[in-house]
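Why should sequence recovery work at all? Because a backbone constrains its sequence more than one might expect. Tight turns favour small or flexible residues, buried strands favour hydrophobic ones, and helices have their own preferences. The token representation captures these environments compactly. In the example below, the structure is given first.
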């Protein structure tokens, strides 16, 4: 997607003239979030949103110029769900892991967000910029260059999306059946390294929400110091 010269935030929510607006961008965005949560991202159209709000599609264009702008508002609204109120503690790794867990939880609450991020350009709204600045404040005492820190923050977002996708009901599959299939394939003898690894590792643990969060945290605590060292 080509970068847009203007964003929805670069324009006032309403013009100085004309009748008072019947709604607000906040209300429209909230309705779009509810629609996406209930029916998926593909269901979010200007027509469907207008029906949900009890108005005509044309009226929505008084607030957003296109569906792309609506998607930008939705993504930034989710970024606004993260709690950035705590000041950095000085434990940059612990603080950053906590922020990443918040991000993963937001992606899990809104499974469509991963698809939205895949389709959008690099359009950052005010909440997303607050998140970026907060993450950089956390990383102030960490080693590494500014570029390395920005890359680390990007990694957090990518891993949060990946783990949230694995937690989505449609992606969960049947873990015991998957493990049994992999073990059967390894036992055929054509993949000795896989067989050795599975034999050493033993049966896979039951992966509930707490276990997935713990795995996510362990992975971050290994990767981030290596990126910034």
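From this structural description, the recovered sequence reads:
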């Amino acid at each position: 997607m080509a970068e847009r010269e203007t964003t929805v935030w670069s324009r006032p929510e309403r013009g100085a003239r004309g009748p008072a607006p019947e709604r607000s961008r906040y209300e429209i965005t909230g309705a779009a979030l509810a629609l996406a949560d209930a029916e998926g991202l593909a269901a979010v159209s200007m027509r469907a949103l207008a029906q949900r709000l009890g108005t005509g599609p044309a009226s929505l264009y008084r607030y957003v110029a296109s569906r792309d702008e609506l998607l930008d508002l939705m993504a930034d609204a989710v970024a606004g769900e993260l709690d950035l109120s705590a000041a950095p503690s000085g434990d940059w790794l612990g603080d950053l892991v906590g922020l990443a867990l918040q991000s993963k939880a937001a992606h899990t609450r809104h499974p469509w967000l991963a698809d939205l991020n895949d389709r959008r350009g690099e359009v950052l709204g005010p909440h997303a910029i607050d998140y970026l600045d907060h993450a950089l404040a956390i990383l102030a005492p960490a080693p590494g260059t500014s570029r390395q820190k920005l890359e680390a923050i990007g990694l957090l977002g990518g891993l949060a999306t990946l783990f949230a996708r694995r937690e989505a009901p449609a992606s969960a599959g049947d873990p015991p059946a998957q493990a049994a299939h992999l073990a059967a394939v390894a036992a055929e003898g054509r993949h000795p390294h896989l067989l050795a690894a599975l034999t050493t590792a033993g049966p896979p643990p039951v992966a509930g929400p707490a276990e997935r969060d713990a795995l996510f945290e362990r992975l971050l605590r290994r990767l981030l110091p290596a990126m910034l060292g």
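A few observations help interpret the result. Residues 146-167 form the longest helix (22 residues).
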